[in-house]
């Protein structure tokens, strides 16, 4: 079997392969690569071909390494393959060929590491009875309301969000093909919760969600989530990906409340293979990794205190 690796520039060829794979992921889609470029990043779309037919795909993004002690005139990068590579069969030689082909790119990009992430009714009725209405965003004012709620939620739950224009670009990339929707939960004219969905293949991704700090007793996110699942089914999706849950499923862990909320809709844990690092420059990589671990440990302790306090108050139902 002869595998040839080459860059793929044909959108239909790239997406055609990924959407026909059971584990083809949104974050490897052609459109997501365009979003990375929109943010100023650089990407490589590598296709593994056997007799001219794609049997594997691997999209890489190139990002600078935040070295703790910068060296003037010296710049290093890291390569990231989010939820990839994707191959037809787990034991396919295309996987090895794709990873080996990155060596040349790594040298050209002065890469420190290649990081891989292979992919393998009561509350609803309460919201309806209390007059919560779910509708699709119709105009710029609706989009602005979505983003304002996203900012509120990010401040409340301490997570990063991209700028408004980036979120607008996400919709632009997918909505024209009917593969995205922005839903709003409204009560007496006030928008109190929102969600952005993206369809890719027969999967629907719950990309971003937000809720206000008021009227949370109306349970708007439950009705909103129900409508989102209905949208996914109506658009031919077989799977609904709630996205992130805690790595450790124990009360007090970061995002435990989010996990309980998602589990209540019949969600189940689907773990991916742990992230894999191929280290090219050990000294720089180890210094960078150590600084990241220190920041992550501090953040984990801060979030753990918050989660335990919420659990003690009996409010472990994160509605963001």
CATH homologous group name of the largest domain: Gcn5-related N-acetyltransferase (GNAT)
Biggest beta sheet attributes: 7 strands, mixed
Q: What would the CATH topology of the largest domain be?
A: Aminopeptidase
**Number of helical elements:** 9
Distance between the termini: 49 Å
Give the total of domains.
Answer: 2
Net shape: globular
What is the element string, with H for helices and E for strands?
A: EHHEEEEHEHEHHEEEHEHEH
Q: What is the CATH architecture descriptor of the largest domain?
A: 3-Layer(aba) Sandwich
- Which CATH top level class of the largest domain fits? Alpha Beta
Helix content: 25-40%
In the predicted model, the low-confidence regions spanning at least 5 consecutive residues are 316-320
- β-strand amount: 15-25%
């Amino acid at each position: 079997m002869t595998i040839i690796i080459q860059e793929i520039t044909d959108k239909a060829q790239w997406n055609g392969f990924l959407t026909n794979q059971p584990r083809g992921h949104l974050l490897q889609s052609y459109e997501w690569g365009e979003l990375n470029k929109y943010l100023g990043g650089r990407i490589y779309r590598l296709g593994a071909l056997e007799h001219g037919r794609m049997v594997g795909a691997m999209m890489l993004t190139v990002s600078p390494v935040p070295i703790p002690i910068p060296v003037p005139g010296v710049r290093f990068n890291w390569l990231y393959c989010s939820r990839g590579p994707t191959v037809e069969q787990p034991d396919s030689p295309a996987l090895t060929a794709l990873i080996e082909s990155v060596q040349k790119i790594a040298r050209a990009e002065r890469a420190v590491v290649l990081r891989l992430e292979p992919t393998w009714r009561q509350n609803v009725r309460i919201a309806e009875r209390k007059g919560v209405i779910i509708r699709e965003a119709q105009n710029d004012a609706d989009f602005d309301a979505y983003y304002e709620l996203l900012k509120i939620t990010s401040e409340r739950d301490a997570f990063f969000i991209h700028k408004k224009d980036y979120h607008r670009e996400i919709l632009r990339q997918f909505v024209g093909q009917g593969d995205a929707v922005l839903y709003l939960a409204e009560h007496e004219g006030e928008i109190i919760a929102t969600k952005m969905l993206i369809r890719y293949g027969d999967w629907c991704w719950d990309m971003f969600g937000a809720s206000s700090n008021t009227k949370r007793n109306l349970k708007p996110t439950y009705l909103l989530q129900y409508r989102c699942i209905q949208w996914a089914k109506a658009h031919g999706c077989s799977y609904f990906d709630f996205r992130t849950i805690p790595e450790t499923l124990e009360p007090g862990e970061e995002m435990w409340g989010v996990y309980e909320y998602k589990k209540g809709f019949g969600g189940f844990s689907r773990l991916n293979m742990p992230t894999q690092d191929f280290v090219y420059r050990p000294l720089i990589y180890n210094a960078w990794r150590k600084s990241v671990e220190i920041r992550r440990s501090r953040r984990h302790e801060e979030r753990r205190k918050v989660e335990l306090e919420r659990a003690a108050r009996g409010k472990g139902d994160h509605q963001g």
